[in-house]
Design goal:
By secondary structure, this protein is α+β, with helices and mostly antiparallel strands. 37% of the residues lie in helices and 18% in strands. The protein is built from 21 helices and 20 strands.
């Protein structure tokens, strides 16, 4: 994607269901579980660049030695740093104890050698980059079944209300971040459980999960491990956040992406299942697996951005869907270039738009009936250069050079140049870097194509598009309102939004939808094109978006499209979008003075 947007985290939970000597005998290493968890995290590394964490819990640790181990990193290469440090610990342990024995399996001589692993990759959508913000989070206790390690991929819209509830019940949360709130809520209900003489006894986790998550509003896939080895995973009722699992006699594993599990364990797509929305999976201390519904049934709204951009495209279903997204764009692309195959070059913005680009080409070949389809990689991204110009003083001059171009393909003044992108969110990179450098090739017309519809609304479930000021589509809407003498509609919508926010979530409506309804899709797209156009651009500029109807056809199982349509899956979503409108209006008023 041309606009760099951060998004959802990645989580992995792995439980070895047999005793440790089994894996030592079959796989020749007591670190079979650790090695598989490393693979699971590595194959999800795209989901987290701001932090990484890994915890290991052993079932047979003796009193006097630690029953869990935890390591985190928030360095610039957090996963690599994390694994390097754990590797050094393991190497030191091997030198101290040349032979593995069951009795020593979780002593300090054998670090990260246990039956349960919990890993996390953090994308810092909100909050600072620090070790304290990295998962797994820990609630430590000398009673093993009151110790909790928690990690997840989540964003809640009602953390303020949950925070106030905790304070009213006598707690003093250290932070108002949703991760700290979730941990505190778990602690609140764990402390209400009776303490038995056996500190390792199983906990009624389903009962705890039903209580702790009943008032959560947002998207979440939360995994946890108790100190006694019990483990669980819980997914939000709308299925906003992805969660997949695999079970056999040896292991139980959960992760944020199906393909990561497939690769780590050499499985077929059909062998990896989706954790049903609203359900929790519990893995007992003995390794027994049970699944139950813990949250009330609601309309399923799985995040469609997962399919367009976030998840890796090597998942079979996602690959097919991205191909379909490219194919669906062909009629609009052909209209934009006047069906001129001979004088049109098709390209894409690297790198995640590649699969949709292939779909676009396949459909063009089929529709062309033998006509030559010209294609090339015109835009070339220099990923390291972006880091090099992190200094703000140099950004304006050097930012356009984040991208380079392939010369000698475009015939100046003759060819149309079509460039496909996953989505256009802010438009900054397109306007300031991509279009100026493409214009150097002197195409007659540049057609910017988005495999997704316009992003019209902020997201409150993980993607870092939290305000209207970041959206080029909203900027186009405001521009249209002013040009058509309807600026007052914006003020009226803000007054309604303010009333809704005061009345509470159940009464909130998305007050911005009525503003977009004042204009056609074509009018909005044309105005976006005007805003994206750099002042010095010589070529004609056309912007083409995917329609929401085509998007639903291509990704029929993922209807979570609130950033395109404004149809939020939880009550808190409407409150958040109304508050975002009020925040925007406050900024406008401040600038006016």
């Amino acid at each position: 994607m041309s606009d760099e947007i951060q998004h959802e985290c990645g989580v992995g939970l792995l439980r070895l269901r047999k005793k440790m000597p089994y894996y030592m005998q079959k796989y020749g290493s007591p670190w079979f579980g650790y090695q598989k968890m490393v693979l699971l995290l590595e194959k999800q590394h795209n989901r987290g660049q701001d932090g990484a964490g890994l915890a290991c819990v052993g079932l047979n640790a003796r009193p006097g030695s630690a029953f869990y181990q935890l390591e985190k990193s928030c360095s610039s290469l957090s996963l690599a740093d994390l694994l390097e440090r754990i590797g050094a610990q393991i190497e030191a342990g091997v030198k101290l104890n040349a032979e593995f024995s069951e009795a020593a399996q979780l002593t300090p001589a054998f670090p990260f050698c246990g039956e349960v692993y919990l890993g996390h990759l953090r994308y810092g959508t909100y909050g600072r980059r620090s070790l304290s913000a990295c998962h797994p989070l820990v609630r430590d206790h000398s009673w093993r079944n009151h110790t909790l390690l928690l990690a997840g991929n989540f964003n809640l819209t009602n953390t303020t209300a949950l925070f106030e509830e905790l304070v009213a019940s006598g707690h003093h949360p250290r932070s108002s971040q949703d991760s700290e709130i979730l941990l505190a809520l778990f602690i609140h209900y764990l402390e209400q459980l009776p303490r038995t003489p056996e500190g390792s006894a199983d906990v009624d986790l389903f009962r705890v999960l039903k209580k702790v998550a009943r008032e959560w509003d947002g998207g979440f896939h939360v995994c946890g491990v108790m100190g006694n080895g019990e483990a669980f995973a819980l997914r939000d009722a709308a299925g906003i956040r992805p969660a997949f699992y695999y079970l056999d006699e040896e292991i139980a594993v959960l992760a944020s992406e199906r393909a990561a599990i497939q690769t780590a364990f050499n499985l077929k797509s059909s062998q990896v299942c989706e954790l049903p929305p609203g359900y929790a999976m519990k893995i007992s201390r003995e390794g027994a697996v049970e699944m139950r519904r813990c949250l009330p049934q609601t309309r399923i709204r799985k995040c469609v951005f997962e399919r367009i951009y976030f998840s890796r495209g090597n998942d079979a279903e996602i690959h097919r869907e991205r191909l379909a997204l490219g194919r669906a764009l062909v009629p609009r692309v052909l209209d934009a270039v006047g069906h001129d195959y001979e004088n049109t070059v098709i390209s894409y913005i690297p790198n995640t738009a590649l699969i949709s680009f292939h779909g676009l080409l396949e459909e063009l070949f089929q529709r062309g009936h033998g006509k030559m389809v010209r294609f090339a990689q015109i835009a070339v991204k220099d990923a390291k250069f972006r880091t090099f110009i992190s200094d703000a003083s140099n950004r304006q001059d050097l930012f356009p050079h984040v991208y380079d171009v392939t010369y000698g393909v475009i015939r100046p003044g003759v060819d149309n140049l079509v460039v496909l992108d996953d989505s256009i969110v802010r438009g900054n990179t397109m306007r300031n870097a991509i279009l100026p450098i493409l214009d150097r090739l002197e195409p007659k017309r540049i057609v910017v194509v988005s495999s997704a519809p316009p992003v019209c609304y902020p997201d409150c479930y993980g993607i870092d598009i939290a305000s209207f000021t970041e959206l080029v589509a909203f900027a186009a809407l405001v521009s249209l309102l002013k040009k058509n003498g309807q600026a007052g509609a914006l003020t009226e919508a803000a007054l309604l939004a303010e009333k809704d926010v005061r009345r509470g979530d159940p009464h909130c409506q998305n007050r911005v939808k009525a503003l977009y309804a004042l204009f056609s899709e074509e009018e909005l797209t044309c105005e976006i094109s005007n805003l994206l156009r750099p002042p010095s651009l010589k070529a004609e500029l056309v912007v083409v978006y995917q329609s929401c109807a085509k998007l639903r056809q291509c990704c029929p199982k993922h209807t979570g499209d609130w950033y395109f349509t404004g149809d939020y899956p939880t009550p808190g979503g409407n409150r958040v979008v109304n508050q975002a409108l009020l925040n925007y209006m406050n900024r406008v008023e401040k600038r006016a003075y």
